[in-house]
Structure formats: structure tokens, C-alpha cells
Amino acid sequence: MQALNGKQLAEALTAGFNCLQRYRDPINALNVYPVPDGDTGTNMMLTMRAGVEKLVQTENATAGEVAAQMADGTFWEARGNSGVILSQFFKGIAQGLEGEAECGGRELAQAFRSATDAAYKSVGNPVEGTMLTVIRYVAEALESDLETSGDTDDILSLWQKGYQASRDALDATPSMLAKLREAGVVDAGGMGIVVILGGAYLQLTGEDVEEADLELATAAGQIDPSQLASVSIESDFLDSSVESEWGYCTQFLIQGEGLDIERVRSDLAEKAESLVIIGDDRFIRVHVHMEDPGVALTYAVGLGELDQIKIDNMSLQNQDWASGHQERGEAKSGIALVAVAPGDGLAQLFKDTAGAQVVSGGQTMNPSVAQLTGAAERSGAEDVILLPNNKNVAITATQAAERENESQNLHVVATSTVSQGVAAALAFNAQASAEQNLQAMQEAVDGVVSIEVTRSVRDTTLGGITVAEGDFMALVDGDLTVVETSAEAALLSSLEGVGLDDDHIVTIYWGSDTDQETSEGLVSAIEEKAPGIQVDLFYGGQPHYPYFASVE
After folding, report:
1. Each residue of 158-177: pLDDT tens digit?
2. Which residues are bridge partners to 472 per DSSP?
3. How far, CA to CA in Å, does 186 sit from each of 373, 422, 465?
4. Can you name the residues that pair with 251 across neighbouring β-strands?
5. How far apart are the first and last CA of the chain?
6. How many CB atoms lie within 10 A of CB 368?
7. Coil vs helix vs strand at 80
8. Upper half-sphere CA count for residue 290 (Cβ side, 13 Å)
């Protein structure tokens, strides 16, 4: 393969994201630098997911256009230090591929050099032994190979060399950074970069990304991507970490006109312990660690409008982080989610929003107790919450929760629809207790109106409503309310019955029996009937039900 076109580049980036999802928990467990101010794996995954979601029409896109879409998506959803730096990595890739129809060897090297420059520039005080180093090693390896061989005809060989360089850099991070050496681990953000490049390489070579094990290791030994407990931190480092003062992690977006990013970087660097800042003259994203978050906010509000403000107490986060590692051993620990999903899009949604173990099933394919308990076991958590997402599966979930298991506690939030399950998953908090999660998730379920649209397989009468074979039925919270000749008409009529106001949020999941174009037309019809209403559209992939929908 001489070069990657836009579609191939998009597929490689998507595979890198899928691999990052698989390694999210082990990357989270490695996170020790610069402070445990969030979950590196989760922050990188959510940042990259926003970019991947931009890659919707790549069939005829150029490599430059795909890279630009990725950069745009990651900028707006960048989270944490690692996410912000990752967004700049993709910005640099986009700058390096600007105007390029394909990504060949020279273009790849050019893109990684640009990515390195952008990533380093985003950090107020760049430190070696971090993800910055890993990115730089790749750029240098690609440039060196091209300078030596001059061969630009084999993109796969060059990508493999870049990937190997990232692995070499990752292995070297403890020798560069005392914190990593003391903790006995490699850098978390650096591993994220390695995983992304590794997943992309597997895609390019035609290998399986879903079950990818890149055979990565840290000082404590080999990492199993499916088991958080395979990562351990040196106990002496944990003890000293708890004694440190951490302050506050503060993130926000400044929107204004004529913003001077270099001036902002300079002004905040004088007050910050750690600073990552990116943007342009209209939008600036800031991630800063300070003893007093008010100082940064007061300074920024004088420059423009502030949005997406998030402040975390890093001292409390550090205590939770250290406690979690100190308690982790062979026994199960933590809390996890198991969700039943009837379609591939919905399965991915549960994985993305809550890191759930997913069991395939739903109407006409009810999973067994063994399938639910097996998924719970694979999570490795002490407490596991089951989301049946179908009234016929709820009793199975209850039975699974009643089985005896000394090392694991199963709980059930009796979701009877997929929409309820998604609401519950969005309320899930891996840092909270089982009791807190059960309460929050049930409250989320209670605040959702669920709509399911399906087609009748025979003539019948339900609740006094006559239904003919082939009619489309809309069920609102399980009760038949509407019969129409099309799935779209049934959903629209049922939504009108629920009430469409501009303070409502409507979420639609389209299934395998319909298509995106038809679904987007339905969204337009809803927005026409209720101007100002928020309508979100997702691919669910569920069979038998053209649409699931929720109203909040």
C-alpha cells in the first residue's frame, strides 16, 4: 500500500479509537502524572470519540479533510490534560495533511512533525517522559527512516516503524520521569498514544481490533486490557502521594474577539502549577492546576465569555485514587455496569457512556442468567449493576442478582426499555458507591418517557385500539397509544401526544429496519413542529423496532 485515501485514514483512526476504548481502564489505572486529576484513559477516549463522530461521510473525502474533521471534533470535547494534548496532536496531523488527497510516507512524516510541534506548544512547561515524548519519538523515527531509505512507497512499513518507536518511547518514560519510576509504571497518556497507533496499525494490516491485546507492559508486568487489576502502583509512591498538596484542576473555554493566546499562556503560567492551553483568536481552551481556581476564572472573565467551566478538588481525587490502588489485589473491587443491548449501535453507546460490559439481547432474544453473570465476572468489579433494558429480561436480571457469590454483589435497576437504560447509564458514576448509583440511576429512569415503534405481525385489538397486520404501533412507556401506516408517522404522532416543548430533549435511536436519511427527515419534521426543541439522533441498530425514542 503506497498511501491512505480519506476513507482508509478514517477507518484507521476509528480502529485506533476502538482500541483505546478497550485499554481505557488499564490506562486510567496508570495515571500518576502530573497529578491524578481525572482518568487519562477516559479523557482521551471521550476526546477522540468526538473526533470519530465527525467522520460520517468519508467515502469521497480526502486525507486532509478527514484529518480536519478529526481535529475539529477533538478540540470542542477535549477533556483533561491528556485530552487537550491529544486534540492538539490531531490539530497538528490536520495541519500536516492540509490540502493532501492521500497520506503517503512523506505526508505521514510531515503530519507527525506538525503534531509534535502543536502538542509541545500547548503545554506551558513541557516535561519529557509523557505523551509528548511518545509523539516526538514517532516523528523522529519517521523522519529518520525517510532520510535513510528515501522509500515512500510502503505506508504500512512506515506506520509499523512509527508504532514501534512509540512503544520504545513508552518503555523509556520511567527513566525520564521520577514520578513514573517511583510508581513503577509507564506514562498513562503515552500508553494512550501507543494504543491508538497500534489499533490503527491492526486495521491497516487487516487484523482484529475488537479483541486486540497489544502485549503492553509496565514495570509490574504484562497488562491485560480486559482487567483493571493487572495494573499496580508501588505502595511507597501511593503513601507519599497522599501526603502531597494538589490544589484544584480548573478547566474552561474562553470565547471572544481578538484573543491573544500567547499573552493568556504567559499570564496564566505565572500563577499555575501546570498549564495546558490551546485555541485561536476566538476560542481558547484552558486546563490549569492552581491553589485558587478563582484567580484563573477572574482573569479569564475579563477577556470574554466563559463556558464549559469545570473545577475538581485534586486533593480529594488523589485520596480516592490512592485508596483504590491500595485496596486493589486479587479480590474484586470497584463498581461496574452490565447492560443488555439489542443492536450494535446501542452496544457501543453503553460502552462509550459508562464503560459497560454489554450482553446482546432484547425482544425475541432474551439473554440467560449465565450470560449476565458471565459479563459481571468479566468486569472484575466487586459491585455490578445490571440494566436489563427490556421487561422480559428484567426477571432474568433479578434471578442473576440473587445467585450466591461471595466475591461479587449484583444489583438491578429494572429498566424496561432501552431509553430508560441509556438514561440510567448516563447517570452512572464509577467513583460513587453502589447505593448512590442505584438512587441516581433510578431517578434518571423516572425522568424519562420511553417510546418504542414496531410493526404488528397480526390483526389484533389492544387497549381498545384496533391494529391490522403491518400497521406501525407506538408504545409510550409500554402502552399502545398510536397506530399509523409508517414508522415515522407513528413516532411523530406519539411525540405530539407526549407534548413537544422547547424545554424538552428528544433522543431518537434508529434501527436496522430504517436508514439515516429517513431518520434525519424525521428530525426535521419534529423541529418544524416544535421550533427550538433539542433533538438528538443516534444509530441504534436494533432489529424489529425502526425507532426507540426518549423524551426528557
Report:
1. 999 999 999 999 999 888 98
2. 455, 484
3. 33, 35, 64
4. 287, 310
5. 49
6. 14
7. helix
8. 21
